[in-house]
Amino acid sequence: MSLLSQLMQTYKTLSIVGMAKNSGKTTTLNYLIRESMDDGIILGVTSTGRDGESTDMVTGTEKPRIYLAAGTIVSVPRKLYELADAGLEIISLTNYSTALGQIMLCRVEDSGYVQIAGPVNTKDQKEICGEMFARGADLILIDGAAGRRSIAAPDASDAIILTTGAVLFRSMKRVVEETAHIVRLYQLPVLENGNTRDIIFQNLKSEKIMLVKGNNINILDLRTGLLAGNFLDEAIDEETDYIYIPGALTNSVISDIHPSKIRRVEFILKDPTKIFTDVTSWQQFEKKGGKVKVLRNIKVAALTVNPYSPEGYYLEREALLTAMRNVVEGIPVIDVKMGGKIH
Amino acid sequence: MRLSDSKTRSETGFDHVMQSINVLTPFGKRRLKELTPFAPGQEDQLDHEFHELEGIIRLVKEKPQLSESLIETLMDIKDIIFTIERSKSNILSIVELFEVKSLLLKMNKIIELLGTASLPLSKKFILEDITCLLNILDPRKDRMSAFYIYDDFSENLKEIREEKREQERIIRKVKKTIKSQVENRYGITLTPKFEYAVSKSNKELIRIIKEIPELTQWDEDHLSMIFTVKETEEIDSANREMDRINESIEKQELLIREKLSKSVGNFSHTLKNNCDKIGELDFTLSKAIYAIQHNCVRPHLVKEHRIEIDDGRYLALEEILNQQSKPYCPVSIHLEAGVTCITGANMGGKTISLKLAGLVAMLTQYGFYIPCRDAKIGLSNDIHILIGDSQSIQRGLSSFGSEMDELKEILDNSKERSLILIDEIASGTNPAEGLALTKSIVQYLKAMPYISLITTHYDSVAESEGIKNMQVIGLANADLRKLEKEIQYANSRERIEIISKYMDYRLYHAKNNEEIPKDALNIAKMLGIYDEIIENAKKYMVGKKGNA
Asked: Best residue in B103, B222, B245, B246 to probe A by mutation, most A CBs within 10 Å?
């Protein structure tokens, strides 16, 4: 069974998100689009920004255009419509504007290459997806952001396909380690329904750090623990069970809190993208007994690896695939450039 | 015609109403922007405008569902006048044709909706039929807003496109045959794209694949080589054929776009007319909705210069009171040529009544319904308000200086049938000269063919011969004992609110020589000014009596 057909059994909307630029995001998108053609799946394709341009606007590396089959529903900015090589029936003009003009919803009438773009914010993206489903899309692929720091919590999609590869590090060990770290973080356990979750949700809008002690709550006048780790350490007392941080959880925040307190309390974060620590610090944190739960986590539906880096070096393909598969159990890992069976 | 200056428009609250008029289309917005007032002598045209507005108000009230659909239809209409203009001598792009078609569908929907209204509506709102052009742009007649150069536009295009698909099928079929031959013969699997990627490290495999005559190397990167099916003579010729077909498809599409653009160009006059009509409908509809929401009525126009407002409400204040769920006390004002003074208690709403007169007069002349129970309005040539504002202080002028500056401007510009509204003139200078100046201004205005309305604290101004004095009822009929009791334990903010509650803002016509009640000291006392000060002030009042 193709990767896409397999994913479709569980998900309706998938974001393709890169660990870094040039980790193979567009290649992955093209691969999945190709699969959809073979399986007769009607795709909706949109993007969290402009995409499909022949060179990547950020790094200047070459980027393939996106070939879409007839029937696909796609969002195209007005100024790029005429540049499309595919025949596009205009379905509607949306209210979302980009630097390249209003976003239009189109149906591919005649297969060909298209440059896509979409709304940047989550709410608009959800609306676009809704309209694509209404127009008959079976599954929606969102070309998401690349670079870990720019990954927004993917509210608009059910899960992500994470692209990773040699571009991250020259050392295969580090590529695998870093990727595994991110995948683990993304799948951190969700704070279960109950009293604590209710209390946090009631005060979510305040965007403040909260200390939960049984049924009581202490809201600090702080958004993040950044530069205020000591203060935070002070505020955590014997009775604190949970600490909710709406902002970033960084190395410095962790190191300012006394190890005994780290062992005792449970950290609650909005979502995994709020964690900004490197692999080693995270491991130390866990060793100290640190526990983190999130209000919502990010499902990783599949992992694609690109052994080639635009800087000119590459990693041994088979070894990379094998190493990766060993660390992310239960998640399909493939090299989209070479294709291949799903393990 | 220039009816008033921008200060008058803002101080009377006319701008506030304008900002609340919620037009939906670019054409309605333009109509609102180009709004001009009706002048004396145009009473019949203005009355006709009110008649048309009444028709739309009936539509909104009697056909709520239809009005909802109408509003929805107007909601996302785009301004494509430029595109329509362009169509006369240019070939429109597909996106532009899509927009034209969308607009046509909107027009069609409006025609359809108003057609089912079965209410007598002005011709001004009835769009011209555009079915003919719509049929050209929508040959399938499915009336969906989607657009593409469909096969239905030309038999020729349809045939060529069919040919293209046929060629694609041929190429794919040939490649598929080769694919399965290769796969069977060599035991490898090509991708559906007819590719086969080999890792460069696998030198042996590369050597084997290179020897397969049906495959050729197509691409490579640092890691792998990608092979694909070699193009046979058959594929080659099909590809050449494809190029030819693509070219003629492009030519055909251009021809069709040209033809469609020409059709749009031929209809450009009708389309632009319809856009104007949509603007008119949108603008009138939003006026109607405003009138219904704010309980406004149609003014009765009279030939002579007179303004009679029964139970008028100053909209900006009413909105605030509504939000606080407090009742609004409507005020009646009857004005005719000559000078009318509004006198009476502090906090008695004199300024609001003054502004109300201006607002009602302005709204009427711009064709809006007015916030009152009933009104008879004679049109003015000129409406001006003279009122202290913070702007003059920001400009660095003293309040007296800028007041005199504005007064001169108003006197210079006034002509027959002017409406002049003056709030507490000369209150910023010494009382002796202030009184003298006010009296003199009133005497001057009395002789002019204007309606002048003046709020003042100088009793003797209002008591002069030939001046009509409207007085605020104020606390005259209030149960002062009850008021004082209530106020006793209140804090300062509550005190003002309590006094407002007891205040009767209505005006009555005070006869000459009638004593004007002095509430200032009472109110000052109620607001907590020390007894010592109040008592002394009362003593001074006794000494002064008869002098003012």
From this structure: B222
Q: How far is B419 from chain A (nearest CA, A)?
A: 46
Q: How close A183 comes to chain B (CA, Å)?
A: 26
CA angle A244, A246, A248 (to 5 degrees): 105
- Which pLDDT score is estimated for A311? 76
Q: What is d(CA B521, CA B542) in angstroms, rounded to the nearest whole number?
A: 13
pLDDT at A148: 54
- Collapsing DSSP to helix, strand or coil, B388 comes out as coil
- Here the tokens at position A173 are 């060990």
pTM: 0.81
Cross-chain Cβ contact B145/A337 below 8 Å: no
CB-based contact B192 A38, cutoff 8 Å: yes
Give strand pairing partners of B468: B340
Which CATH number describes the domain made up of B6-130+267-291?
1.10.1420
Q: Where do the domains of chain B lie?
A: 6-130+267-291, 155-239, 298-475+504-514, 518-548
Contact, A242 vs A266, CB < 8 A? yes
Q: Does A62 touch chain B (CB under 8 A)?
A: no
- What distance in Å separates the CA atoms of residue B236 and residue B89, rounded to the nearest whole number? 41
Taking the Cβ of residue A104 and every Cβ of chain B, the question of whether any pair is shorter than 8 Å is answered with: yes
Q: Residue B305: which of B227, B379, B253 has the closest Cα?
A: B379
Superfamily of chain region B298-475+504-514? P-loop containing nucleotide triphosphate hydrolases (3.40.50.300)
Instruction: Write the CB contacts of B247 (distance below 8 Å, at least 6 apart in sequence).
Output: none
Q: Quick check: B510 and B502 in contact, CB under 8 A? A: no
- Helix H or strand E encompassing B502: helix B492-502
The full set of domains in chain A, from first to last, is: 3-187+298-334 (3.40.50), 195-294 (3.40.140)
Nearest residue to A119 (alpha-carbon basis) of A55, A159, A78, A75: A75
3-state helix, strand, coil in chain B (%, to 5): 55, 15, 30
3-class secondary structure, A96: strand
Selection from B277, B269, B348 nearest residue B28 by Cα: B277
d(CA B378, CA B174): 88
List the single residue in A81, A87, A308 with the smallest CB-CB distance to B223. A308
ipTM: 0.75
* Contact (CB, 8 A) for A139 and A8: yes
Phi then psi dihedrals of residue B472, to 5 deg = -70, 130
Amino acid at B219: D
Sign of dihedral through CA atoms B444, B446, B452, B454?
Answer: positive
In whole angstroms, what is the distance from residue B120 CA to residue B66 CA?
15
Of B132, B246, B104, B230, residue with least CA distance to B179: B230
Find where tokens 């309590």 sit: B498
How would you classify the pairing of strands A159-165 and B306-312? unpaired
Query: Is residue A73 within 8 angstroms of chain B, CB to CB?
Result: no
DSSP string across B5-27: -HHHHHHTTHHHHHHH----SHH
Share of chain A above pLDDT 70, in %: 89
What confidence category does residue B515 fall into, taking pLDDT thresholds of 50, 70 and 90? low
Of residues B450 and A80, the one with the higher pLDDT is: B450
By the CB < 8 Å criterion, does A38 face chain B?
Answer: yes
pLDDT at A53 over 60: no
Q: Tell me: the pLDDT tens digits for A276-333?
A: 888 888 888 888 888 999 998 889 999 999 888 877 788 888 899 999 999 988 899 9
Give me Rg for the CA atoms of chain A. 22
Query: For chain B, how many residues are written?
Result: 548
β-bridge pairing A216-219 and A210-213: antiparallel
Beta-carbon pairs below 8 A across chains A and B: 60
CA distance B287 to B265: 33
